[in-house]
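Quick illustration for those who missed Monday's session on complexes.
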Amino acid sequence: MKITAAGGSIQDQKVDTLVVNLFEEIKPGGATAAVDEATGGAITRILDLGDFKGELNSTAVVYAGGIAADRVVVVGLGKEADFTANKALQAAATAFTKARDLGAKNIASIAFGAGAGGLQVAEAAEATALGAILGLYRFDQYKSNSGEVKKEVQSLKIVEFDRSKVRQIRAGVGDAQILGESVNLARDLVNSPGSHLTPTALANEARAMCKDIGIKCSVYGPGRIRRMNMGALWGVAKGSREEPRFVVMEYEPQGTSRGTLAVCGKGVTFDSGGISIKPGSGMDEMKMDMSGAAATVGILRSAAALELPVRVVGLIAATENMPDGLALKPGDVLTARSGKTIEVLNTDAEGRLILADALDYAHTFKPDAIVDLATLTGAIIVALGHEATGVMSTSTDLVDRLRQAGDYTGERVWELPLWDEYEEAIKGKIADINNTGGRSAGSIAGGMFLKHFAGDVPWAHLDIAGTAWSDKGKPHSPGGATGVGVRLITRLLREWTKPPVANSS
Ligand code: BES
Ligand code: MN
Ligand code: ZN
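Prediction with zinc ion bound:
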């Protein structure tokens, strides 16, 4: 889909579909009023009839004369007082998917929320274009071509009446393209089956992205992983016929850098549970256990392409977690790269093992902050469902920033504590620590474990097990992989003026 910006009047556009919007309880204004007038009041009519009220993400389709377009899709923005950039994105996604499903090929629309919504023009254009790119995403690589013609939008033109604002629209669209393509890249990786997206393939995809965008990338195989003393990662990896990979991606800004963020992603390309094997039902979903790694690839891509003024180092620990004659066994003890010994009580708590070595390695880049993204625990779904990512941290400052970024993007985070009292649960019997915390506070136990490897650098652990995958989907996320984390961390980086401070204690 080609997205362009142009000056002009929306009602004059020679396309098959116009998309306009409306707040609840407010009369049409701006572009919507112009289309209403051109069509002889067709939009006012559906409002007067009460067929359409402008509720958020509700749509109406209007067929009327007076315009070149075959149809007008009207979408609700909800109450003006509750309006945000994220709602503009959602409404845009809703409207453009509706138009696509009706067979729209060429669409003209406006920047959602730039007028009455009070958003900056570039911000509104970004939200609109991002809604289109994220909402129209499909993963159909594995569908055989059955001759059925796919409905696909070919072009979207964002029209602005005030020609002096077209430049800002274009800038917003450009940023949306970078962000949207980065999120969709992460989604593609997560949706790919484990047999295709092996650790080797994941590393190759990361390397290809880095080459494409022009940043540094190093990939280490089993030999280097063992020589780097990554005993915890190797412990998980040795139970699989697929070789593990450790990936380091580095984005360095051209001008002055405002600091360094290290991002660590869990890259378990398939989690069977290992010897502590998972039950069969729903196990197919465990191909998504590399969602943190996929987000890391997307974050590096967007940070570099947006030329953000922060150095970002992306680290991916990629492996399968399989049962095998050589696999890790409950009761085994591993020595992590940091020297800490770990008693493995459950081989299905593998994410924290591989991240232990990634977090420890992250310190070699002298980061100002570390963030890890991991589908770490089923317990986070019990606690927060699918609406929020769990965040556990050693820096209130970093959590505040993540919360703000989450509220802005809609990729919301909710904090869980890492109090010393929780340490008891992971005390080792024969080693320093064990990898499971028993039945209570499962997500926190994971966080407490990782804290041992995070050091003194402000660090936040994001448990995305509930947010990385969506069965039902949302307007801007059609089901399956969500690509969560890419927009969240890119927003954190865009708002980054100085490094976060650690808690004093
Ligand atoms: N990959 C899973 C967590 C997960 C669960 C991700 C559901 C996405 C959806 C993780 O490796 C795991 O198996 N965690 C265990 C930890 C337990 C053994 C301490 C869990 O949550 O049961
Ligand atoms: Mn597991
Ligand atoms: Zn896992």
